[in-house]
Amino acid sequence: MTVPFDQALPAADRYHLVVKFSPGPGGPAVEGTWTSGATALRKFTSWVGSHGSERGVRIVLQAETGGVRTTVRQWPTDTQH
Is 72 helix (H, G, I), strand (E, B) or coil? Predict the structure, then answer.
């Protein structure tokens, strides 16, 4: 379950951000990993602003703790995965 946009990110070991430019496996994507939640959230917001209106784009921010990833933000917000 994602964290509402008005709530802070949970504490985590690292944060992973993925922008997929087409649906399905094997399509073009950009990925980044940060230890700072603030940096990851800034990047998420920036990528939503620069790519969020493009057709088929999905942007997912995950928090990782103990090797387990949890989705904490996604765009568009109604995307289920």
Answer: strand
